[in-house]
Amino acid sequence: MKNKEIARVALLIGIGAVLIAYLLVEKNKIDVTEVYCGIGSNLAQKGRYEEAIEYFQDALLIDSRCYKAYIGLGMAYESSKDYKKALEYYKKLLRLISGRKGL
Fold it and tell me: pLDDT digit string (tens) for 86-98?
C-alpha cells in the first residue's frame, strides 16, 4: 500500500470508531460522565491522583452538575494533600446539592 492509501484507511478506521462510539452512546444511553468518573475513581484508588483529576474535570466539562465528579475531585485533591483545592471542590459540591447558583 502507498502512503496515501494507508492514510485513507487509517482515516476511515478512525471515523468508523467515532461513529461506533456515538451509536453506542445514543443507542444504549451510556452516560459519558459516569464513564469518566469511573475511570477517575479507579485511578484514584491506585494512587494516580493527577490522572484521576483529569478524568473528573473532563466529566465536568460535559456536565457541570455531575456531583460524582466534584466528590472525586475533592477526594483526589485531599489524597494528594492539596487541601485548598479539595475544599474548593467540596464547597462547589455543597452549592450544587443545596441548589445554589455560582458553580
Answer: 999 999 999 999 8
Q: Measure the CA angle with vertex 41, ends 97 and 14; round to 5°.
A: 110
Taking alpha carbons only, the member of 8, 16, 66 closest to residue 37 is 66
CA distances from 58 to 3, 8, 13, 27, 69 (A): 35, 30, 25, 22, 9
**Tell me: the pLDDT tens digits for 21-76?**
666 666 555 678 988 999 999 999 999 999 999 999 999 999 999 999 999 999 99
DSSP string across 61-103: HH-TT-HHHHHHHHHHHHHTT-HHHHHHHHHHHHHHHHT-S--
In words, the CATH class of domain 31-103 is mainly alpha
DSSP secondary structure code for residue 47 in this structure = T
Rounded-to-integer distance, Cα 26 and Cα 53, Å: 26
